[in-house]
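From the pipeline queue, job 12 of 40. The input is one protein chain; the requested action is below.

Action: predict structure.
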Amino acid sequence: MTHQSDLIAEDVVAYLKAQEQKSFLRFITCGSVDDGKSTLIGRLLYDSKLIFEDQLAALEADSKKVGTQGQEIDFALLVDGLAAEREQGITIDVAYRFFSTDKRKFIVADTPGHEQYTRNMATGASTADLAVMLVDARKGILQQTRRHSFIVSLLGIRHVVVAINKMDLVGYSEETFAAIERDYRTFAADLGFETITCIPMSALRGDNILKASEDTPWYTGPALLPYLEAIDVDRDRSGAPFRMPVQWVNRPNLDFRGFAGTIASGTVKVGDAIKVLPSAQTSRVKDIVLYHDTLDSAVAGQAVTITLDDEIDISRGDVIATAEEPPEVADQFEAKIIWMADDALLPGRPYIFRAANRQMPGVVTDLKYKINVNTLDHMAAKKLELNEVGVCNISLDAAIAFDPFQDIAEMGAFIIVDRMTNNTVGAGMIDFALRRASNIHWQALDVDKAERAVMKKQKPAILWFTGLSGSGKSTIANLVEKRLHALGRHTYILDGDNVRHGLNKDLGFTDADRVENIRRVGEVAKLMVDAGLMVMTSFISPFRSERRMVRELVEGDEFVEIFIDTPLEVCAERDPKGLYKKAKAGEIKNFTGYDSPYEAPEAPDLHIKTVDQSAEDCAEEIVRYLEDNGYLAAV
């Protein structure tokens, strides 16, 4: 490096010990396009003499080839590492840089300014303690400044530095600085920031980066780096109640059983009374182990192993907490969600939710509204698109221990994972548990599904007919029911058209409404299976994820997926309701096969090809399948 501590040569051990004892700050730079975020970080590293000599040589060479400052050094190139970023002069991905000064260690995330990369910016902000919000002094507060400020607030960052950059281009005007500071403080008054510090600077020239600039004698506040070295953010987590989500059960031998994890908040001491959630078991802390050492206490941010006085059942994802102030436990919440996927969030569609080392299936049951991140207005919506923020109700398959995100971020944050692709599609923050989550319980009944099935002399199941409109689903399902009725079986048909006259008459044909349509039908079908019936459902059900959701509502062999496979052109020729003709003429929107997709089953239980056989033969094939697989035998 162009600069290093003299202590390295004199006493390496002492140098390492000094580094270990330094406090740590994570911060991000954000704001609108071309406000100078990458240049600021580059200048910060350069002026602090924190660049390796070979990096400096490469920077000087790159500045001449692809830089934007003529023959001068283009500091933005230190963090704009992607070829596309250098070509366009913008930041696309999140660039992380570690550096250290005599007083503190830092990780800085340079985040994109473009609106289309808002999800990248949110990713960088999710682990930060402080945000440096860049504002171009010539332009003032822009729409993206407001957008990023709201997301920073949403993600729990409570300390903001408003870096009013490019002051050299406005003649270091005090009036310009004062006007921008006033505008920002007025806008951010309701965002919940604890501190807002405005600093006039020129990242390109180095004004007010390391020390006070002679060009701004009217400014009496701190320069950027001294401020970052001094601000206290550690007290926020250490003062909260003790929480440690268990990451793994540490069992190296028969004589040791500990619970390892990173302390999310608070302090724990040997002898403290603890409660394990969600089981509510209690014990006391026996030892706190860190590598080969034992500690008397540990604080937020430390990764430790805790042993207890009692042998109690604890697994990954459980939370060890102080017995005096335990977290809440619930399975339904109101939460804010930032959507990060190209495919929209649809209420009713199943996802995987991961929170505090635990994951479980769940659904967004209701999208209450989405938030216009530029104006903060609440807007009605049925789905969330890429980079949108919404307030939703969530229902999980199992209860979890949590604290509201605003109280303890690590205990109230979660991510949403697509079940089909395993991609992360959203990030969320829990506001509170829904009251009904804690006062509704399953009522025990004396007559169960098995006894109802025995009485009906059949194996209850959902026969799920899926296929394009006009494929023959309803016709074949009707023939199957007639055949089963003649055999004395107890059946019912849930037909796509029929349920839209009552149960689902409030739903349209958008993707969001289709998902909710299938969710409701799946729940009704599940109740009918519990009643011992063989229920046939005739729905296009175009999405694999929703058919999979219904399959998982019942036991493994109680869902029979029947793919009524009829080519689109054959369905269009039949066109019994004239829908294809209307769709082709543009009179019907969101019609499956034209402007709405159909995802054919990849491995259906029954694949019925209607082109090669009559509806009667198709029905007979289905009945034979039921006979051969024991559905019609006396249970």
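Job complete. The two ends are 78 Å apart (CA to CA).
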